[in-house]
């Protein structure tokens, strides 16, 4: 299969389907009460729990208003995400109020994978989640973690809604699965469980929310990890088991908060050349931005994410030892790709999990069904598409190369 080359990132050639979706986007008002009123109407509930989230939601919304290049569909999408999170928050509070025994659920020795975006974290957590002894967050459940009172039956109606929604999304952006598949049963990031508390770096993937980014980076994330743990308890109470496997890149920049909330956590940390990470991540974002934004500024997008990845990695280097060595392992991407089962075996040993015949069979099945580049391989061009000086970026990340022996991956026009 030839490489996929996306040659219209700067000046997208929109399809009729994309234009129709943009034209059909409803106007939205980015106010806290508009979001909360919509969530109340969607759920029939009214108790959001502690009110501190309102300030963070207000910053999210102000950041979206200040992002002048967001188009109508981008704004409607972000407003809809806020309503989804607020609706989830209502259902979480309702479930806890009706079932206070959820507090007794123990989240013990969760396996919490950290690592850069595009560094194999999604693939690794999906391999581990094939083991039925571990609880995870499939995409359909992260979209709607707590069922509504009418969500009964098998299959779960929430799964059907997620499949339909992401199916339509991938029809609109057909190259997206080659960069990041969103199958309803694949494990998604657990920072989605912080979404109902309106924290994490989630807004940065769909917009350029400068006000929120600055607030997030200046704030202790421990309360929001505690909130996500509360959601994990509820999910285990609804459907066990109670030992979890999750993953998310921001764990790298929040290791002290993660350990404070999960003192028994097992933390595998994946490491990959940040230049390779950047070219993959920002190409994926730029491809999606064609339906979200009215103007594409690729150098600005690259600058945003070079800055963000640098902050994330500097915090990882600074705080890496916050996780006790006996409960953590560094996984180099090139070693992981060379022998995935050996990497999995190391994580199992660290987590003191026996590799049972059933677990191994399920893992083998997942690996066979999900080879690398299953949906095609995208050809990236960090310098040509985004105007990035790759050598200068490597110099900025010298601190990371010095700390972790990742293998540098050549990009177009570069010799290593």
Automatic annotation (TrEMBL):
Organism of origin: Rhizorhabdus wittichii
Protein name listed in UniProt: Sulfotransferase
Top-level taxon in the UniProt lineage: Bacteria
């Amino acid at each position: 299969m030839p490489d996929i080359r996306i040659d219209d990132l700067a000046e997208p050639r929109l399809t009729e389907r994309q234009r129709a979706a943009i034209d059909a986007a409803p106007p939205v008002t980015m106010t806290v009460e508009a979001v909360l009123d919509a969530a109340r109407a969607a759920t029939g509930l009214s108790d959001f729990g502690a009110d501190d989230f309102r300030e963070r939601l207000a910053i999210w919304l102000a950041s979206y208003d200040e992002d002048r290049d967001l188009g109508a569909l981008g704004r409607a999408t972000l407003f809809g995400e806020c309503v989804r999170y607020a609706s989830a928050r209502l259902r979480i509070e309702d479930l806890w109020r009706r079932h206070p025994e959820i507090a007794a659920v123990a989240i013990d020795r969760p396996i919490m994978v950290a690592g850069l975006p595009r560094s194999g974290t999604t693939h690794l957590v999906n391999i581990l989640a094939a083991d039925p002894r571990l609880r995870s967050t499939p995409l359909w459940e992260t979209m709607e973690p707590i069922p509504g009172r009418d969500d009964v039956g098998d299959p779960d109606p929430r799964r059907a809604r997620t499949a339909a929604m992401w199916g339509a999304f991938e029809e609109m952006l057909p190259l997206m699965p080659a960069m990041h598949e969103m199958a309803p049963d694949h494990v998604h990031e657990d920072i989605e469980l912080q979404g109902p508390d309106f924290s994490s770096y989630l807004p940065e993937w769909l917009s350029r929310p400068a006000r929120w980014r600055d607030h997030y980076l200046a704030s202790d994330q421990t309360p929001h990890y505690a909130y996500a743990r509360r959601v994990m308890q509820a999910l285990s109470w609804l459907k066990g088991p109670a030992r979890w496997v999750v993953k998310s890149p921001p764990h790298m920049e929040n290791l002290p908060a993660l350990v404070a909330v999960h003192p028994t956590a097992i933390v595998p940390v994946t490491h990959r050349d940040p230049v390779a990470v950047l070219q993959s991540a920002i190409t994926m974002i730029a491809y999606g931005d064609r339906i979200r934004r009215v103007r594409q500024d690729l150098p600005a997008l690259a600058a945003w994410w070079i800055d963000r990845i640098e902050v994330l990695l500097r915090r990882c280097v600074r705080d890496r030892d916050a996780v006790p060595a006996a409960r953590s392992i560094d996984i180099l991407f090139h070693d992981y790709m060379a022998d995935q089962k050996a990497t999995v075996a190391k994580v199992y040993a660290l987590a003191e999990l026996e590799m049972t015949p059933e677990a191994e069979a399920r893992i083998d099945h997942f690996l066979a069904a999900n080879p690398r580049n299953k949906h095609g391989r995208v050809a990236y061009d960090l310098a040509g598409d985004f105007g990035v000086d790759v050598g200068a970026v490597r110099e900025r990340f010298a601190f990371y190369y010095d700390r972790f022996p990742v293998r540098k991956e050549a990009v177009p026009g570069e010799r290593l």
